[in-house]
Amino acid sequence: MGRAPCCDKANVKKGPWSPEEDAKLKAYIEQHGTGGNWIALPQKIGLKRCGKSCRLRWLNYLRPNIKHGGFSEEEDGIICSLYISIGSRWSIIAAQLPGRTDNDIKNYWNTRLKKKLLGKQQKEQQSRRGSSLKQDKKSSGNGESMVPDHNQSPYWPQLPVLAAPIPYSSQEQCIDSQDSMRRLLIKLGGRFCDDDHVINDGTTLHHFPNDSSSADRQLYEQTVHMPSYSSSPMDALNNNIGTQFVNSQYTVNGANLHMLQGQSSFSSELQEMARSNLQRLDGMEFIYGEGMVNNRAVNSCESIGWGDTSSLVCPPVASEYEGIQQQGMLQEYAFSELRYPGAQ
DNA sequence: AAAGCTGGCAACCGCTCAATC
DNA sequence: GGATTGAGCGGTTGCCAGCTT
To answer: Separation of CA A90 and C1' B20 in angstroms?
Structure first.
C-alpha cells in the first residue's frame, strides 16, 4: 500500500546549493536522466537533498538552455498578455518563453514588471489629469467647475477600471456586492469614490443630482456605460477581448461605485485580469453570484478549481493550453499589441 | 565608514491532483 | 474505493548585494 516515504526530513540539507552538489546533480541527470523518480534521485547520487529540492534545482537552474534575467520587451508583452488572460499560472506562461522558468517569470513579475506597469499607468494618469484640468479651466470659464470638489480628491482619478458588465439577477445581489467590490478595488491597489451619482468618462465629469430621475440615469447608463452582451459575458469577452473594455465605462447600479472609462491601458488590463481571475480574487464573488458563465449558471458558493475553468477564460490559452498553437500565440500577440502598441 | 533600507533572486512550504498500492 | 505517495505548481520567505542616509 502506498509508496516509500519521500525523504528523511531530518537528514536533508537545506539552503543554497554548492557547486559540488550542482555538478553531481547535473552530471547524473545528463547521463542517466531523472529516471522518473525525483525522490530516489538524491540517494542514488549521494546528495543529502530532498527530491523536490533536486527537481527544483534542475528545472530552475541546471537545466540546459536556461536564460536568466534580461527579459526583452517582447517577453514582457507575452508575460503581461498571458497574466491578464490566465492569471498567475506561471508554468503555463513559462512554457511560452523558451529558456525561462516559472520561478524566474514569477520573480520578474513580482519584482519588476508589475511595478513597471503600475509606474506606466501612474504616468499616464498624471498626464491625463493635467490635460483634463486644463480643459476644465477652459470650459468652465467663470472658474466654477461643474465638478464637485470631492472629485478632485486624490481618491477619484486613480480608480482602476473594473468591468462589471455582467448583468445582475437581482438588485439585492448588486447592493450586497458593495463590500466585495471595495475589497477588490483595494486589492487591486485602486481607490474608489463613495459619492453617489458621479460618473467620469475620462474627459468630462458628469454629476447626477440626487433628484435626477432614475429614467434619466438609466438612459445615460444604457447609452454610455453598459455594454450589452448578446449571449454571455464571456462570449463577449472572448469576442471583443482587448477592445471593448477600453471604450467602456460602467456604473454598478445601486452600488455607489463607479468604474471609470479606460484611463489607461493598464486599467483595462486590470479589468481583464479581474475578469479572468474572478474565482481566485477575494472579493470577486459578487461578479458571478448566480450569474451566467458561458450560458450556464454558476453557484456562488461553488468552489471552482482552475481545472474546471477552462471555459471561463480565453480558450486558446486556458482550455487547450497543451498545444498552444500558432493561432493562440497570434491572438496573444494581437492582444498584446492592443495594449502595448509598438512594444514588439 | 557604518547602519539601515530596498530590491532581486533562490529556495522552501504547502497545497492539489494524479498515480499507485 | 480508500489510503498513501509523488509530481507539479503557486505563494511566501530568507538571504544577499547594492544603495541611501
So the answer is: 28
